[in-house]
Structures are given as structure tokens and as C-alpha cells.
Design a protein that fits this description.
The complex is a heterodimer of chains A (289) and B (186). Chain A contains eight helices and 16 strands. Chain A has 289 residues and is of the alpha+beta class. In chain A, the strands form three sheets. Chain A has an eight-stranded antiparallel β-sheet, with helices on both faces. Chain A has a six-stranded antiparallel β-sheet with strand order 2-3-9-8-5-4, with no helix packed on it. Chain B has 186 residues and is mostly helical. In chain B, 41% of the residues are buried. The chains are: A alpha+beta (289), B mainly alpha (186).
């Protein structure tokens, strides 16, 4: 069958679907700007909603990863955790404190680090079926969580970032989503917003979809371009002011997928309309700052 | 005038039927045609042919959805026109791009050339489209039924062109997987 015949077959689909497609009228720019903005405001508003949970001694914004080492694997950087010291990190990423043999999947390659012996990376068996679909229709397994054979037993290796060519390189957000097995908005189960030690969870599919669409539809840039964009034309005082604003207004959050994977930290910077994720900066679609 | 009244004019064999049709749906038909054939002149002819085809087919047809019925006629005629003009190295519009994209999910072999097989394929495609979200279904059909340019679809849905391309690409991949799972040889 040729594409021409397929096009003709498509021509016979039900009139209801044709009418439905005809209903898609051009949107006004104003509607779209507010639509995207509303999705992001939902993240902030959630902080003040009844869903806020105060945690004592749990995950906090100060809970940075405490890596024993960083390895390069498959064009990306991975932190190999010290399993004895990583309780908070493991909790945050919803991973078990101990890796048993049945959790170790197939070997997938060797990771390297300067001055260290290479170590073997294995699939993490509970996530072995988590995939996204690549541009050619190929299945791409998740790349967020691997297992290594460290000297004192198995340890988790967590994705940090792709290796960037220079300080102005960036990755498209699709690539970051693919790391966690996210193909589309429906693959995201919830957004966990962090503010100090407060957490709130957004699981409304419509809000998640609008957030996802705004992020996917936005433009991406590397660190240098981002700095240039927000600092352009400002004197030193102005730069200090914008840095302070960025810090004060920042809202951190992470995404949890339907498969249970948790992303690294994303930071929403409402004063300039950007989301920062793994040293990449994404201007949300329809928001110009 | 309501569609049912326009259809009634066709059944009454009133020439006013075409005049009213052109008034109500002329712009829409021309847009459908022009997206496919590329040239305004060819599009105009396709639309006029579609009016004639409607005149000759109603009755016995009594379309419940006149816009979709006309759209289908225009699409069919325009595509035939485009195929002829492509042979003459004329044309333009979106069709080359649309067909290149659709080639990703076209069942291979000669197994679906027969009418029964085509109906079976159509049922599968309908079921696939039913499983999409409303917006993705609209975007897919704007591109592959109406042959709208990606830029125009982006404008309609308040998205960037990149975002629309990603959705189309993923939907094609999903359709391909869906058809493979149902035994179509891709």
C-alpha cells in the first residue's frame, strides 16, 4: 500500500471526527498566554492549598545528592550513591535502601571515571520495561536509574544530566523526559512541589497536561544564553536584584511517572518565566517573562 | 440556512442549493482544496467539481453532516487533481510533506488493496483515533485529513510548530505500532 492510498483511506473516516477537527479554530494569543500561565500558577498556588504536607526530617530542599562518585555513561553523567549514606535521596527517588540480586537486570555497559576502574552498569529490573518511543519508532529504555557493582555491593547510579558540549549547550526537554520514560503528559502521575520543607502534590491530569504542553512548547537554551537574556542591559546593581528575585521566587518540584520514576529537581522561576532542569533552561510557551 | 434545509433544496432539485452551499461552505471547501492542490486556480476548479458531485449525488444521498460530506468530496477531487499535477511536475501545497509523513505508518505489501481490506484498515484507524485525546485527534486530522500546514495547526491550537511536529510524530509512531499489533505488515 502506498501513502497515497492510505491518505484516501483516511478520507473515509467518520464525519463526526472530521467535524470535530473542523472545530479547531485559531486561538487568540491572549487566551494561550493565560492558559500557559495558569498551568504554572497552579504549581505555585498548590503551595497554599490544603494539600500541603509538613514533613519532619524527611525530604527537604537541602537534601542534595551526596555522591561518592560521578561516572560518564552513554553520553550522560551518573551519580553512584553511597548506599549507606543515601537514605534521604533514596526516599526522595522512591528507591529501596538495599538492592537485592533479583533487582539487578541485564548488563548494559561500562561506565568510566578518570583515575578509577570502570564499573559495570546494569538495568534496574523493576524499571526494565519502562520505555519511550524514539523518532524512528524504536523503543528507548529508561536511562534514569541503573545499578552498579560497587566494591561493597550493589549501588544505584542516578542520571544527573547529559554531557553538554559547552556552557551554552542544552538538551531539548523531550530528551530529558525520555530519560524517565515519559512519552506524553499522561505518563506523568504527579508533580511534587517543594518549598522549604513543605510538599504538595498535584495529580490533576488537566493541570499536568497544561504544564507538560507549556514546557514542551517552549524554547530551550543553555546557561550562557539564559544569563545573557535575563542580565542584558542591567548594571551590577540590577544584576544583583534579579539574582535575588530569582532566588526568592524559585519554586522547586519534581515529577513522578506512572511507572514510579521520580525526576531530578526542576526549578520554576516565575519572575522570568523559565524552568531550569539539569542545567537546561526552558522558556514556557506563551510566557515572555 | 440550516444544513437540513440546504439538503432539502438538493432533493427539490433547486439550483439555489448550490448557491447556498457556496455561500455557506465555499471558503471552507476552497481551503481544503488549496491545502492539497496548492494552486488557487486548481482549488477553484476542484470546489466547483465538488458542487457538481454534490448535485449529482444528493439525492439519493441525504448527508446528515453536510460540511463533512462536502469536505470529503473536495478532498477526494483535490487529491486526484494533485496526483495528476504531480505527474506534470506542477502542484505545491502540503501534499508531498503529508505523504512523506504518512509513509511512516502505511501498511506494506499488497494485502490491503482490496475494498474489504481497506474497510478493515479504516476500522482499525477509526479505533485508533477513538483512543486519542480530543486535541491529538484534531491535530492528527488537521494534518492528514485537511492537509493543513503545521504552522496553521500550531496557530489553531496555540502551540509552537515544534510542539505540533512532536505530537504528529508520536501519533504516527503510535499508529504504526497499533497497526503492527493488529497484523499489518509495515
Amino acid at each position: 500500500m502506498t501513502a497515497e492510498v492510505f491518505f484516501q483511506v483516511l478520507g473515509d473516516i467518520s464525519p463526526e471526527k472530521v467535524s470535530e477537527a473542523m472545530e479547531a479554530k485559531p486561538l487568540s494569543p491572549v487566551w494561550h498566554r493565560w492558559g500557559a500561565l495558569a498551568a504554572c500558577l497552579a504549581l505555585v498556588v498548590a503551595l497554599a492549598s490544603s494539600g500541603i504536607v509538613m514533613l519532619k526530617g524527611g525530604i527537604s530542599q537541602d537534601d542534595v545528592l551526596r555522591p561518592i562518585s560521578i561516572y560518564e555513561f552513554n553520553g550522560a553523567m551518573y551519580e553512584v550513591l553511597d548506599m549507606d549514606e543515601a537514605a534521604a535521596t533514596l526516599e526522595r527517588f522512591q528507591l529501596p535502601r538495599r538492592i537485592t540480586a533479583d533487582m539487578v537486570g541485564a548488563p548494559i555497559g561500562t561506565a568510566v571515571r578518570d583515575g578509577e576502574r570502570p564499573i559495570e552498569f546494569y538495568q534496574y529490573a523493576p524499571y526494565s520495561s519502562v520505555c519511550t518511543t524514539g523518532p524512528l519508532g524504536e523503543q528507548r529504555p529508561q536511562q534514569a536509574v541503573y545499578v552498579t557493582d560497587a566494591d561493597d555491593g550493589y549501588a544505584f547510579a542516578l542520571f544527573c544530566n547529559y554531557i553538554l558540549f559547552d556552557s551554552d549547550s542544552h538538551e531539548e526537554v523531550d530528551e530529558l523526559f525520555a530519560v524517565y520514560g515519559i512519552d506524553e503528559a499522561e505518563d506523568i502521575a504527579s508533580i511534587t512541589v517543594r518549598h522549604g520543607i513543605a510538599l504538595s502534590t498535584i495529580s490533576d491530569p488537566e493541570t499536568i497536561r497544561r504544564f507538560y504542553d507549556a514546557l514542551c512548547g517552549g524554547s530551550a537554551m543553555g546557561n550562557d544564553s539564559f544569563q545573557q537574556k535575563i542580565m542584558h542591559g542591567l548594571d551590577e546593581l540590577g544584576q544583583q536584584e534579579i539574582y535575588r528575585e530569582l532566588a526568592d521566587s524559585a519554586v522547586s518540584f519534581s515529577l513522578t511517572t506512572r511507572d514510579g520514576l521520580v525526576t531530578g529537581r526542576l526549578t520554576w522561576r516565575p519572575t522570568v518565566g523559565y524552568i531550569e532542569w539539569a542545567l537546561n533552561f526552558y522558556q514556557l510557551n506563551g510566557i515572555n517573562g | 440556512m440550516e444544513d437540513s434545509e440546504i439538503v432539502a433544496l438538493y432533493w427539490a432539485r433547486s439550483p439555489e442549493a448550490i448557491e447556498v452551499t457556496a455561500g455557506k461552505y465555499g471558503g471552507y471547501c476552497k481551503t481544503v482544496a488549496q491545502n492539497i492542490v496548492g494552486s488557487a486556480e486548481d482549488a477553484e476548479e476542484c470546489v466547483n467539481d465538488a458542487y457538481l458531485r454534490a448535485w449529482n449525488s444528493i439525492p439519493p444521498q441525504r448527508p446528515a453532516n453536510l460540511a463533512a460530506y462536502l469536505g470529503k468530496l473536495v478532498r477526494h477531487l483535490s487529491f486526484d487533481r494533485w496526483c495528476s499535477s504531480r505527474a506534470d511536475k506542477r502542484g505545491g501545497g502540503q501534499m508531498e510533506l503529508v505523504l512523506d509523513e504518512l509513509a511512516d505508518c502505511v501498511p506494506g505489501g499488497g494485502s490491503v488493496e482490496g475494498e474489504l481490506d481497506r474497510r478493515e484498515l479504516l476500522r482499525s484507524v477509526e479505533a485508533f483515533l477513538d483512543g486519542l485525546s480530543r486535541e491529538k485527534r484534531q491535530i492528527f486530522l488537521c494534518r492528514y485529513w485537511f492537509a493543513l500546514p503545521v504552522s496553521e495547526i500550531a496557530k489553531r491550537f496555540g502551540r509552537t510548530e515544534g510542539s505540533v511536529s512532536v505530537i504528529l510524530n508520536r501519533t504516527r509512531n503510535k499508529l504504526k505500532r497499533y497497526l503492527v499489533e493488529r497484523g499489518y505488515n509495515l
